[in-house]
Design a protein that fits this description.
Blueprint lengths: L1 E6 L2 E3 L5 E9 L3 E10 L6 E7 L4 E3 L7 E6 L4 E6 L8 E12 L2 E6 L3 E5 L2
Parallel strand pairs: 2-11
Antiparallel strand pairs: 1-3, 3-8, 4-5, 4-9, 5-6, 7-8, 9-10, 9-11
């Protein structure tokens, strides 16, 4: 009933820029929080950044000062941006959302994942 669609991944040189987008659609009553996770080969999935309906944000230590999470409530879209990518940012990035589909029903949703490769 709820779908998250991601875009913006690809091959980027070190020091380059990234802008990932994730749009939620379907039976949405209220979006409580949105976030981005990533998983590198052989590693566990980790939180990159998240934001809740009150505007608070949380960032992994490895990306603080380099990444920014932002949301457009009118478009049900969350973004992840950086202008200073490092090779260690290489991973599959997943959009995540905590969404109510009516006043008493909620669930956690995941996007399909988008590959980000930072290399010369």
């Amino acid at each position: 009933q709820v779908h998250l669609v991601e875009s913006g991944g690809g091959l980027i040189q070190p020091g380059g820029s990234l802008r990932l987008s994730c749009t939620a659609s379907g039976s949405i009553y209220r979006i409580i929080s949105l976030g981005w996770y990533r998983q590198a080969p052989g590693k566990e999935r980790e939180l990159v950044a998240s934001t809740n309906s009150g505007g608070s944000t949380d960032y992994a230590d490895s990306v603080k000062g380099r990444f920014t999470i932002a949301r457009d409530n009118a478009l049900n879209t969350v973004y992840l941006q950086s202008n200073s990518l490092k090779p260690e940012d290489t991973a599959v990035y997943y959009c995540n959302a905590y969404i109510y589909t009516d006043y008493r029903s909620w669930d956690i949703y995941w996007g399909q994942g988008t590959q980000v490769t930072v290399s010369s």
